[in-house]
Design the sequence.
């Protein structure tokens, strides 16, 4: 059974960097078959895909257009986890952030396992 | 504004069937058989109900079924139960740099 456990601060100041981590159990971040995603959800923007990473002989990173340039996703094989960093945040980045697994990276399977969600508020 | 269009709300009585539509474009739903559906109860993470248009993950009730026609997809729930009351979201692969897009969600009320 795959489990994803999120951690990170719930309050970030404007212009600072939002950082969240997703610890994986029951699977490996460096598996050849799955991709590791970050999604956020807010009343104003709904569900929004932020990006993903997966391993295919080398690490691949794909990011959504709405956050490209501000977002990075980093795998940590020693701790079997992956992280999200979002720079220069504004109140519009206030949302519940989720990590999730796509078990088949050929196109889009769907997100079969999700973290518990982290409400991140951007406020001074 | 979500790229995929869903009705804001639908309702049905226990035992009835309902269908939730999801309208996209020829660049997303119309171009790929990579439509998935999620159920979300308040305060919980979304749960995958349907993947690749019609397939159910192990453990998902066969009361949930998916279909696609042209640029639109649909989720049908048969034999409505009280616990089906939740928000439902569709998503589609886009093939663009923003890999996947979601619908705005549909609130299902079981009367």
Sequence:
């Amino acid at each position: 059974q795959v489990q994803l456990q999120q951690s990170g601060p719930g309050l970030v100041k404007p212009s600072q960097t939002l950082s969240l981590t997703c610890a994986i159990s029951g699977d490996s971040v460096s598996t050849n078959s799955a991709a590791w995603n970050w999604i956020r959800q807010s009343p104003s923007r709904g569900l929004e895909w932020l990006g993903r990473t997966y391993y295919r002989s080398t690490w691949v990173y794909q990011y959504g257009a709405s956050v490209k340039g501000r977002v990075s996703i980093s795998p940590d094989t020693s701790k079997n986890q992956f992280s999200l960093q979002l720079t220069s945040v504004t109140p519009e980045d206030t949302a519940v952030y989720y990590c999730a697994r796509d078990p088949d990276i050929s196109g889009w399977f769907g997100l079969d396992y999700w973290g518990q969600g982290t409400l991140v508020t951007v406020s001074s | 504004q979500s790229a995929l269009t869903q009705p804001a709300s639908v309702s049905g009585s226990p035992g009835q069937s309902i269908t939730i539509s999801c309208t996209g474009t020829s660049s997303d739903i119309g171009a790929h058989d990579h439509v998935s559906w999620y159920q979300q109860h308040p305060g919980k993470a979304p749960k995958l109900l349907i993947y690749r248009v019609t397939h159910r993950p192990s453990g998902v009730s066969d009361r949930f079924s998916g279909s696609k026609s042209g640029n639109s997809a649909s989720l049908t729930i048969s034999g409505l139960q009280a616990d089906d009351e939740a928000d439902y979201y569709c998503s589609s692969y886009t093939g663009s740099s923003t890999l996947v897009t979601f619908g705005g969600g549909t609130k299902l009320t079981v009367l």
Summary: Chain A has no helices and eleven strands. The two ends of chain A are 39 Å apart (CA to CA). The mean pLDDT of chain A is 95.
